[in-house]
UniProtKB/TrEMBL annotation:
<keyword id="KW-0808">Transferase</keyword>
<keyword id="KW-0762">Sugar transport</keyword>
<dbReference type="GO" id="GO:0090563">
    <property type="term" value="F:protein-phosphocysteine-sugar phosphotransferase activity"/>
</dbReference>
<dbReference type="Pfam" id="PF00359">
    <property type="entry name" value="PTS_EIIA_2"/>
</dbReference>
<dbReference type="GO" id="GO:0009401">
    <property type="term" value="P:phosphoenolpyruvate-dependent sugar phosphotransferase system"/>
</dbReference>
<dbReference type="GO" id="GO:0016301">
    <property type="term" value="F:kinase activity"/>
</dbReference>
<protein>
    <recommendedName>
        <fullName>Mannitol-specific phosphotransferase enzyme IIA component</fullName>
    </recommendedName>
</protein>
<comment type="function">
    <text>The phosphoenolpyruvate-dependent sugar phosphotransferase system (sugar PTS), a major carbohydrate active transport system, catalyzes the phosphorylation of incoming sugar substrates concomitantly with their translocation across the cell membrane. The enzyme II CmtAB PTS system is involved in D-mannitol transport.</text>
</comment>
<keyword id="KW-0597">Phosphoprotein</keyword>
<dbReference type="InterPro" id="IPR002178">
    <property type="entry name" value="PTS_EIIA_type-2_dom"/>
</dbReference>
<keyword id="KW-0418">Kinase</keyword>
<keyword id="KW-0813">Transport</keyword>
<feature type="domain" description="PTS EIIA type-2">
    <location>
        <begin position="4"/>
        <end position="144"/>
    </location>
</feature>
<dbReference type="InterPro" id="IPR050893">
    <property type="entry name" value="Sugar_PTS"/>
</dbReference>
<dbReference type="GO" id="GO:0005886">
    <property type="term" value="C:plasma membrane"/>
</dbReference>
<dbReference type="InterPro" id="IPR016152">
    <property type="entry name" value="PTrfase/Anion_transptr"/>
</dbReference>
<keyword id="KW-0598">Phosphotransferase system</keyword>
């Protein structure tokens, strides 16, 4: 994965989040703080979640903005947040791994593809959730690119 798309600054481990909205806002704030998106992108992430859940299975959710949010994306980036206690994304779907996505142009397609490769293996998700350092998480994502 390209160096500027995911760095250790975009990763937060062992975060306590109480609900889905807080989880999405936290994930989006990382993208904003690292300069990938403007502040209104987070509202678009919440709108996307209202349209359809970003829960993907295997304890993973990939919050991202709506199509209208593209104007709020400055550059392609992802954020990764682990939540050991989990966050309920509705219908009993508990999320322990949040991967926030901001894709410039059509970049989100490649980013989604790489995320899918990593998250298709439950073993990788377990490794990410058990990671002691941000570098360990970064290494897992870099192995597939």
């Amino acid at each position: 994965m390209s160096e500027n798309i995911l760095t250790t600054n975009n990763i937060e481990l062992n975060v306590g989040l109480s609900n889905k909205e807080e989880a999405i806002r936290f994930t989006g704030k990382i993208l904003q703080d690292q300069g990938y998106v403007s502040s209104d992108y987070i509202d678009e992430m919440l709108k996307r979640e209202e349209l359809t859940s970003t829960f993907m299975g295997n304890q993973v959710a990939i919050p991202h903005g709506t199509e209208d949010a593209k104007k709020s994306v400055k550059e392609t980036g992802i954020s990764i947040v682990t939540v050991p206690d989990g966050v309920d994304f509705g219908d009993g779907n508990i999320v322990k791994l949040l991967i926030g996505i901001a894709g410039k142009g059509d970049d989100h397609l490649e980013v989604l593809s790489q995320i899918a490769i990593v998250c298709s293996e439950e073993e990788n998700i377990d490794k990410i959730l058990a990671a002691d350092t941000k570098e360990d998480v970064l290494a897992i994502f870099n192995e597939v690119s």
